[in-house]
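INPUT
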Amino acid sequence: MQKLTSKLKGNKMAQVILLVLYVLVTSLSLYLAQASVTAFLLLLFSLLLLYYTDLSNRLKWVIAGVVLVGVIPFVASTGPSYQSYMEVATVVGIYVAMALGLNIVVGLAGLLDLGFVAFFAIGAYTYGIFATGQAANFMPFGTFPLSGGTFWIFILIGCFIAALFGILLGIPVLRVKGDYLAIVTLGFGEIIRIVFNNLDKPVNITNGAMGLASVQPPEIFGFQFIYPNQFYYIVLGILLFVILAVRRFEFSKIGRSWKAVRENEIAAQSMGIHLVRTKLLAFAIGASFSGMMGVVFAAKQTFVDPTSFTLLESITILVMVILGGMGSVPGVILGAAVVTILNLQVLTEVTNYLNQLNMDGVISFPEALAPAKMQRFIFGAILIIFAIYRPQGLIPAKNPVFDENALKEGAKNHRKEKITIDQDKGFQA
Amino acid sequence: MSILTVSNLYKQFGGLVAVNSVDMTVEKGSITAVIGPNGAGKTTFFNLITGVYEPDKGNVQLGSKSLIGLKPHEISRQGIARTFQNIRLFSNITVLENVMVGLHKQLKAGIVTTLFQTKGVREEEKRAQEEAYHWLEYVGLARHLNEDAQNLSYGAQRRLEIARALATNPKLLLLDEPAAGMNPRETRELTEFIHRMREELDVTIVLIEHDMKLVMEISEHIVVLDHGEKIAEGKPAEIRNNVKVIEAYLGKSAVTPA
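OUTPUT
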């Protein structure tokens, strides 16, 4: 086995062949099998394998694109569970984008936010209110619901409104640090939910606990997005933008200032970093991703009510970030996928299977230990195991590696006239 | 010509007067030392200058501009950089990135230009890396550019703090116990290095230090604090023989024979 792995390392050709074989086998089994969750998950797993190959980044993106856009929807389309697979994939995408947003706040800027789902709610309600008849209650002009064609603009509007609320929340909240920040953000998350729950009087804006029903589906050139397999592509598109944006911010002046603030606030300030502005920017950008996905969520569910935005949701997103690896983009993507799929697919499948055994009389569970009740328990146990054995996350954050030789050449252009640099002696230990 | 003028600076924490009506002027291009026993208020004095604390009374002037009421990052932008007594590096990022943070205020990249990775941003980023590398070369840490800052040896971490401070392009550099924890050889190298910085970089240096050999050798002007008050100032030779200073360090019995 060790021989095999050492042979594979560095041999791109072999890696590509194996990867293609793997994708072929799993897609074929998914294509032929009727509703095989295992095959679907194994196919998704190919993306993780792809991440660990030695291929160039560009090639990895192309292959991932082919698998996500072409292979997965195509081979899943034959079975009766097509829509349920695509539903899972869409939800995974939504959570990945949110987890990446929270990763900026928690992982890069080091601000523990326990009310992150509030921004998701703001995005969802922004579209929900205007894409149902609800807005007619308080808007002095215009006819509502707005058509599904406005959905695309609302993605941007949701993004900006969430960012705006990120800043509004940040201004009072960022006066406190650490544990206190966690508590205050938790409070903010709850406030938003409760406000949405009660904003049906005096003016009915959110329709309170009844929620907003029959949100207009997105529409483009007369084509309506209704089914999960159609939303899948919308989510994929936004996700691509989010990942690109996160990567660019992370390795820029802005990302460095976030990390500096995370590592040491006083030192960061004495380097000329504006503390409040830097933190607000992290809040705003993180929130904006969540806001965009909130709009998509509202359109996909066609129904928005406050129960979708509880504290548990905020904590689930935080778990994704921590489980995946704080500050690590690939880690957080994996973490979000793992947690979502565990909750939506694996644990439900396991419970169904155990229930089946129970019914057939193979094993008998006492009432108190019924499999359905065990779901949360198993999830909790998995988290504890990870916290103990892999505290740095599934894929720990990596620092960039700079090319010393290129810098050595380039640095010569920056030498001040009088400076002497003695490579051998000088100020060296 | 004086670059830093501190007048009547006063700071109280609860009942403790940490800095009591201190006056001080620092000549441009000089090396000034602030010394005193532990708890004399030296670091508080630095914190007041750099805006970490706001003074209760008094004034701090850089050139002709008052620094009172400015936030630490604004003071940094005025041209004061510092190192810390208890090292405050950005531990979990690389050595090169630590220095690049020092270049923060010189970089123009904004949200939109970063998002679109414009040519300007890419070039600026490359220049920043090169300039940061240049500062690492200057303090002799170039080989360690890709290591995490926390993995450096103690002496190297102190040098990285200096490189990071230099990257902000300061007019005035405050060093808080730069030789703490260094062995005699490292201290000697540091002494030489501080001289070199002054000669080559056109920077004024104020340092807090307990190593008297270093202080006497390097500084042109010494200010002695005790219990928050300035008890003496002058040239090294004068301070060496000052009765009050000896008393502060060694106790009354050292100066009044029993």
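end of record. Chain A is about 65% helix and 0% strand.
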